[in-house]
């Protein structure tokens, strides 16, 4: 059985985030990766030097090409840039009946560059989130989507409830942006119960692409038929290994190590 996952996202010329990170993650987890580009970015570990969005028609045709031939067991979205692209993606998800949809609501690059137009946030909430199985915001993204100020675990739980009310089946609010304590806690909400995934906080600046990689790992596991809880647990282990065994490349926020999890499993 060959499991297949499609990523609909932007390209990162530096290779640490975006579709490059997604495809590496799919491969490492033994899932065949396919892609539909929404934008080309010129970026490296120091920041984003340029964003060049594709037309909604170009995005739609890429998805059509994959959907009508190869198909997908799970789909992930990352940088979608505009309301028009979001609407096209939502339309295609409905057309092909893709239920295992993971939405990583990418809004801002690690260096602070905006990757989603302000008016597109409303389109994301209206058109795409109601179709998604899982949404994986970090704390700033969860704040932007809910209008809440998030400081505590209770705040995260309230944000998760509000996102679930938009139609998302499972909400994962990541804790990496919470600087308190020696651990990071990701909160998973399934509409009735909360689950907590804890890991040791790693003091490093090499975290470029962590959000993309985490969501891609969830997507890969869902493509294999794993439950959301199982997929999140594997993704947590995958990204923990990727951050722990840093590559140390670039002069800024360097990428994570996508092969660290496989090497750890082989020991």
From TrEMBL:
Pathway: Cofactor biosynthesis; thiamine diphosphate biosynthesis; 4-amino-2-methyl-5-diphosphomethylpyrimidine from 5-amino-1-(5-phospho-D-ribosyl)imidazole: step 3/3; Cofactor biosynthesis; thiamine diphosphate biosynthesis; 4-amino-2-methyl-5-diphosphomethylpyrimidine from 5-amino-1-(5-phospho-D-ribosyl)imidazole: step 2/3. GO terms for biological process: thiamine biosynthetic process. It catalyses: 4-amino-5-hydroxymethyl-2-methylpyrimidine + ATP = 4-amino-2-methyl-5-(phosphooxymethyl)pyrimidine + ADP + H(+); 4-amino-2-methyl-5-(phosphooxymethyl)pyrimidine + ATP = 4-amino-2-methyl-5-(diphosphooxymethyl)pyrimidine + ADP. Its EC number is 2.7.1.49, 2.7.4.7. Belongs to the ThiD family. One of its GO terms (molecular function) is phosphomethylpyrimidine kinase activity. Residues 12-257 form the Pyridoxamine kinase/Phosphomethylpyrimidine kinase domain. This is Hydroxymethylpyrimidine/phosphomethylpyrimidine kinase. GO terms for cellular component: cytosol. Keywords: ATP-binding, Kinase, Nucleotide-binding, Thiamine biosynthesis, Transferase. InterPro entries: HMP/HMP-P_kinase_dom, PM/HMP-P_kinase-1, Ribokinase-like. Gene3D superfamilies: 3.40.1190.20.
